[in-house]
Amino acid sequence: MKDLNDLFVHLLKDVYYAEKQILKALPKMAKAAQTPELKKAFETHREETEGQVERLQQVFEMMNKPARGVKCDAIEGLVDEAKEVMDEAEAPEVMDAGLLASAQAVEHYEMARYGTLIAWAGQLKMPEAAKLFEATLTEEKNADKLLSALASRSVNRKAA
Amino acid sequence: MKDLNDLFVHLLKDVYYAEKQILKALPKMAKAAQTPELKKAFETHREETEGQVERLQQVFEMMNKPARGVKCDAIEGLVDEAKEVMDEAEAPEVMDAGLLASAQAVEHYEMARYGTLIAWAGQLKMPEAAKLFEATLTEEKNADKLLSALASRSVNRKAA
Q1: Type and span of the H or E element at B129
Q2: How far is CA A91 from CA A59, A94, B93, B145, B159, in A?
Q3: CA-CA distance, B33 to B97, in Å (whole number)?
Q4: In whole angstroms, what is the distance from residue B119 CA to residue B135 CA?
Q5: Which helix (H) or strand (E) element contains residue B43?
Q6: Which of A110, A93, A112, A68 has the alpha carbon at shortest distance from A160?
Q7: What does the alpha-carbon distance between residue A37 and residue A155 come to, in Å, rounded to a whole number?
Q8: I need a labelling partner for A12 at 20 to 30 A (CA). Which of A159, B81, B120, B154 fits?
């Protein structure tokens, strides 16, 4: 990696891989969740994630590069943590509180990465790409807020 | 894991392990960083992280449990991404932009986890623990803001 453009393309591939992993994980999390609102939140976010994958594909197109992921160790670890919750939770309330927390850790990873992509796209004079990343970042922040509200309103209370 | 208390203890151990990994990674990142301000930011954050480890130890003490970590796949993945940057960056400016971004991904992981610990401590009626986590969360948010400012002011510009 020789310059910011190389870093940008590498991170784009990393995030593309991450979103694909999230697309696979969310239906399992929705299936495992017991609280109907949490189930719905995961399903809605899965639909949003499809749009986020499309935005990444648009950026690959802008750069005349094939949309291709590169293995992202961070998302693998984050998804493994969610799987661990699904394996080890011995009560539905515990499952929900743990899954919700895992999902928020994933959201935060994405927030960090889209924040970086926005900054790098700005530096590389790619305002259209930055706009696409901003749309996704807003969705991630809103998804995180929704989960926080759901945690304090019901999920954590039921698990306590 | 049968209840929120079990989840809380598990996450406490997870974050304790993560902070220890971060303590090991930051000196390497400080050594690799070229921009003096970035080097300094990593060094300062290493000192802060020592205090954060102590706060976690205080919470273990409150619960009469030995301070012990449990392997956290997410932080392993995040630290691996920082190592990848150190291995693959072919120019000092690229190194700095990549390391800074990796550090922000780590900060965001911690923000998510301390946010959850605060919520769970509240639910479990552990206000003293919540206060300790809040002090750490504030440090993490400030560290992240400092890195964002540093990125836009100098690091990303130099890499472009």
Answers
A1: helix B127-150
A2: 43, 5, 50, 39, 50
A3: 9
A4: 14
A5: helix B36-62
A6: A93
A7: 9
A8: B154
The two tokens of residue B74 are 């997410």
Q: Do A3 and B159 touch (CB under 8 A)?
A: yes
> Could you report the per-residue pLDDT of A109-159, keeping only the tens digit for each?
999 999 999 999 999 999 999 999 999 999 999 999 999 999 999 999 888
Choose among A2, A76, A93: nearest Cβ to B94.
Answer: A2
Q: Whole-model pTM above 0.95?
A: yes
CB spacing of A159 vs B4 below 8 angstroms: yes
Per the document, the length of chain B is: 160
Q: How many CB atoms lie within 10 A of CB A55?
A: 18
CB B39 within 8 A of CB B30: yes
> What is the per-residue pLDDT across B102-139, written as a single tens digit (0 to 9) for each?
999 999 999 999 999 999 999 999 999 999 999 999 99
